[in-house]
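Work Package 3 (structural annotation) set out to generate three-dimensional models for the target panel prioritized at the project kickoff. During this period the team completed the workflow that converts sequence records into discrete structure tokens, so that structures can be stored uniformly alongside our sequence database. As a representative example, we reproduce one entry of 207 residues exactly as it appears in the project archive.
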Amino acid sequence: MAHLNLDKLRAAKVETDPYQFTVVPGFLSAESLRRINATYPKIDGGGSFPIDSLDENMTIKEVIDELDGPAFEDIIEEKFGVALDGRPKMYSLRGYTRAKDGQIHTDSKDKIITVLLYLNENWHQPGGRLRILRNGRDVDNYVAEVPPDNGTLLVFKRADNSWHGHHPFEGPRRSLQMNWMTSEGTKGWHRIRHKISAAMKKLTKAA
């Protein structure tokens, strides 16, 4: 079963104000979302978790395999005018958002493209909705708001003004993030940081 609706992505418009981004609602079908959530790893803590330890029977691995494929990469290259062939990719999962999360930022300079795939169903909370912002000061000065639900895809090209963030929310909030990185070295650093973070959370939970 194919999970990604690449035709929807091909047809989606890339906005350029205030930076390059595209939003694709329903990039995952309701059935794919159901299967993903039925086998999604238990993540009770905040922060990002690496995908190295995912079980083979988890449907999110099938989604990652499709994102790894050339078809998705080719579309992103064409739509955003970037060369991604040979660039390393980094994946991470989230399952829980803390009240302190969602602060305004641009993403680090070692990221070329950020891909966010939202895995929640029918998000009704006012917080936790990612906003494409006009500046780095005001979360209410935005051009688009993305509810993190129903297989919505958000892709943006990292820039010095690629400000984004959301109003506070604390609770379960599932998403998959993928980035094309400038080099393997920076990918490795982020992976180590995520592993240390995840390990510390496990130790804290076990204490």
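Confidence is low (pLDDT under 50) at residues 192-207.
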